[in-house]
């Protein structure tokens, strides 16, 4: 067992994850590929904690993840673990969109937005990421707007209602002042 797996198995806290991310990986970037590979670990706890440490690194060193966007996308579509999926979507939200956009990712985000089987955080990140992807194709913004407006928000959590409200506000602002290319 590697010392990195041993670190990820220890009792966990946000402080511990920050220590793993910044002290064990940030100060030793040659270990980053090992941490990133652990996102695919078969043990849920290792996968989730590796993704959490990567998310913290992505916040401070997004350049480390630029060449891994396709892999992050693939993992977000294929991981069986909700917590890992949420963190991968968070990373994709932190990174610039890769063009051409992944139609599979956009469709999956649209499918997950109001899927009651998905955790609230996965739904919220799916809304944000769908918006970010649609920004690259302005004609898609109206489709996203229609999708979000047509849902009865009464049955959704406050977090989903807030995310939908904020994204709709951004879409309308964007449509009022479209960006020139």
Which tags fit this structure?
181 residues; mainly alpha; 0% strand; globular
3D structure, described in words:
The protein is mainly α and 181 residues long. Helix content is 68%, strand content 0%. The chain contains ten helices and no strands. The radius of gyration is 17 Å and the shape is globular. The termini are far apart. The model has no long low-confidence stretch (mean pLDDT 94).
Sum this structure up briefly.
It is built from ten helices and no strands.
Overall pLDDT level: 94
Morphology call: globular
Residue stretches low in confidence (pLDDT < 50, at least 5 long) are none
- SS element count, helices: 10
Strand content: under 5%
Biggest beta sheet summary: none
| Residues in helices, as a percent range | 55-70%
C-alpha end-to-end distance: 51 Å
Q: Which class do the helix and strand fractions yield?
A: mainly alpha
- Helix/strand order: HHHHHHHHHH
Report the count of strand segments.
0
Give the C-alpha Rg. 17 Å
What's the helix and strand layout?
Blueprint: H1 3-9, H2 14-26, H3 32-37, H4 44-60, H5 69-78, H6 82-94, H7 103-112, H8 120-135, H9 138-149, H10 158-176
Helix pairs in contact: 2-4, 4-6, 5-6, 6-8, 7-8, 8-9, 8-10, 9-10
């Amino acid at each position: 067992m590697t010392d990195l797996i041993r670190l990820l198995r220890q009792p966990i806290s946000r402080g511990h994850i920050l220590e793993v991310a910044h002290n064990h990986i940030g100060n030793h970037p040659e270990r980053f590929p090992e941490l990133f590979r652990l996102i695919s670990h078969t043990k849920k706890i290792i996968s989730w904690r590796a993704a959490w440490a990567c998310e913290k690194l992505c916040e401070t060193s997004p350049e480390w993840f630029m060449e891994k966007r396709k892999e992050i996308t693939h993992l977000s579509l294929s991981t069986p673990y909700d917590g890992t999926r949420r963190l991968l979507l968070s990373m994709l939200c932190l990174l610039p969109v890769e063009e051409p956009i992944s139609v599979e990712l956009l469709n999956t985000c649209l499918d997950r937005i109001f899927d009651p089987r998905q955790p609230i955080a996965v739904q919220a990140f799916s809304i944000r990421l769908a918006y970010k992807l649609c920004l690259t194709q302005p004609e898609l913004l109206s489709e996203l707007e229609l999708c979000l407006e047509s849902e009865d928000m009464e049955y959704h959590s406050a977090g989903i209602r807030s995310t939908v409200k904020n994204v709709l506000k951004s879409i309308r602002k964007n449509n009022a002042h479209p960006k020139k290319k």
